[in-house]
Amino acid sequence: MDGYGTGKFAAASEMREMRELARQVTAAKEVRMPEGDTIYRAARALQKAIGGKVVTGFETVLPKLARLNDDAPLVGRVVEKVESKGKWLLIYLSGDLILVTHMLMSGSWHLYRPGERWRISRGRMRAVIRTADWEAVAFNVPIAEFHSKRSLAQSRKIVGLGPDILADEFTVKGGVSRLAEYAAKHPDAEIAVVLLNQRVLAGLGNVYKSEVAFAAGVNPFRAMRTITPKEMEVMVDFAQRYMKANVADGKGDGIVTYSGNRRTTHAMNREVRLWVYRRQGRECRRCGAAVMMRKQGEQARSTYWCPVCQPWAGEGTAPLGRI
Ligand SMILES: [Zn+2]
Questions:
Q1: More confident residue, 193 or 258
Q2: pTM for the structure as a whole
Q3: 199: domain range?
Q4: What is the CA(124)–ligand 1 centre distance, in A?
């Protein structure tokens, strides 16, 4: 019983939809490393719930945010829009104020009805934006900043992002030229490291990095100079399709809705959702060889691949991983 049977949420179907959106935002916390699609979904749910609404309450435990709120209160401002940019989530408020958060590994945004019990302890709350109908709660967000349009435009870490794979204007051709430009400057960079670089393409995280390389049959340790334009095209195309499938509103033509985990295979069984990610030592779903795992790049992120489906095409010997 939600107690909101009157007014603008009267329609039962709309109530169901809003509950589903709230669940989707909540589900974001179950994913270890939010990828662009998770942030996109969170932004979309927040936009639907609090977009266009007046802020009736704001609470934060972050001193910088609290100071600004003391000087120029959020209450009374209108949430103009909520959008994602790569892995950043931006909440635009009237009066030229933008709340920018990054979830990194641990953060999440939840939506609750006023008075509804939070699913994460209060001690992890970092900020709450209240409207008449919803509470949007940021838990554990490691980065939360207020910006003006001007300071945002000057923020290199946000505006320095590559094209967002989930943006409407993103094209495979545009994505390929980003990869090609980067390859020309960094011929020795390894492809899977580049796929994670948000300055090249924004949105891919560690799960999709391995999945995209698998889908294209590209060994993730190959240097950029060995990657053909055709391979780049296949990877960018898969990246866009995988991520779009995970933010699709479900129903019809086999596109699978998000359900707490993302999937890249077409199988409906939860167990057979991903091709290689976290499957080291198990049989490749395509050829049966053992999937390998190896830490890669400066940040030593886990990379998964099938040594048969993704043959070594570089110089020297093929890198080996744990199985
Ligand atoms: Zn294989």
A1: 193
A2: 0.69
A3: 172-305
A4: 42
